[in-house]
Amino acid sequence: MQNANDYYIQIILNYLKSSVLLNPEEEIPLDRSLLEAGILDSYGIVDLLTFIEGEFGLAIPDEDITKEKMGSIRKMANYIVARGLVGA
Amino acid sequence: MMESVLCSRCVLPSSFPNISFDRDGVCCFCARPETARQTEFDTRQRQEFEDIVRINKGKFAYDALCCYSGGKDSTYMLKMMVRDLGLNVLAFTLDNGFITDQSKQNIVKVADILAVDHLFFKPARAFMTRMYKEAVFGDLNQARGNYITRISDICLSCISVVNTYAARLALSYRIPMIFAGFTPGQIPRAVIKNNHRFYRQTYHQHKGHWTARLGAHAAHYLDLPADPFEIYQMSPYLVFEKSEAFILAEIKELGWIHPEKLDGCTSNCALNVVGNLCHEKKYGFHPYALELSKLIRRGLLSRDEALHKLTLQVEEPVLEQTLIQLGVSRRDLATLEKRGTRACAESSAA
Lengths: 88, 350
Fold this sequence. Notes:
The structure holds 2 protein chains of 2 kinds.
Chain A: H1 4-20, H2 42-56, H3 67-70, H4 73-82
Chain B: H1 28-31, H2 36-56, E1 64-67, H3 72-84, E2 89-94, H4 101-113, E3 117-121, H5 125-137, H6 153-173, E4 177-179, E5 191-193, H7 196-214, H8 219-222, E6 232-234, H9 244-252, H10 272-283, H11 289-297, H12 303-311, H13 316-326, H14 330-349
Parallel strand pairs in B: 1-2, 1-4, 2-3, 4-6
Antiparallel strand pairs in B: 5-6
Helix pairs in contact in B: 3-9, 5-6, 10-14
């Protein structure tokens, strides 16, 4: 059975592949900063966080936009779960 | 080479990444329904925008800095800031060396009529042209190897300089809000609080990359002092949506005159056409197709108007003059085409 983290990871990956990436076949790292991996620029990070806010109906405060909390796709999924959206 | 087909509702072409069409020729982006969550998000954005304006008004000598390019969108935005929102504004224009004479006249006239303080900032021409060429022919915009480009490489590099200079001015004058005329397809949200920690993290990467390609002097255009003063980036067109016809009628009253000899997607910058041309060669689609399609979906522009914008080109001698000014030849552009094709082929094969 798919757990909540995997579910959110998949939604984030789907968004990146369908809307953001020129080559959706390219492998996207789950445990690395998308900025450092050269996948997104700073605008792309804001765009992705905006998607997460809109998709899951949450507001991400400024102090949570850190490498520790948002520094990879897996961390983003963990963050969504931690914010209480585990029932999806 | 196969002819690119356009969506029957918007202007996205079949060459656009990840696009698909239904049997009526409607693209997957037009067919995607707007979710209730998105509507909620839009409502929240508007509330947030109004709250930030209310809270920050009257706290400092200037309420807001206006990034004023002299184009139609930023001209109407300046009018809105002064007359509708009642803000005390400092406007500034980055003169990139390609702002038309008519645009400069518009800027001075509008600033006078609206009675706002205004500054021109003109970075050294040698730096700007080198930056543009590195953006087009090199890898200055590092992360865009596999990232859908909403604007051309030329525009992106220019906007990096504009944004940094705007932030520096805002810190220097203690201005809590920076307004920019981004439209719905150009930026994801109406209010972005400057996250200094995040900025410095991205800047750290950015700086080494830029200085390696443009020289140590490049840091001067990207560096910001470590200053915790709170600044909000405001994009009013995301919450106060206006049609182009409305905007043009409003700024006509200010004496704004549309400059001639420009492509259909700009109302101030002669370099835009080169950015568009290079983008189409490198990525296979027009850099404004995404933004204009979003405006069509929101009912702010007709499909015919968008098509007119995309197809309106400058005359050859005008383009030639701009290329000379940039120091780029037709042969350079041809090289770009080959390199883009090879890069795409390599990327597809990977």
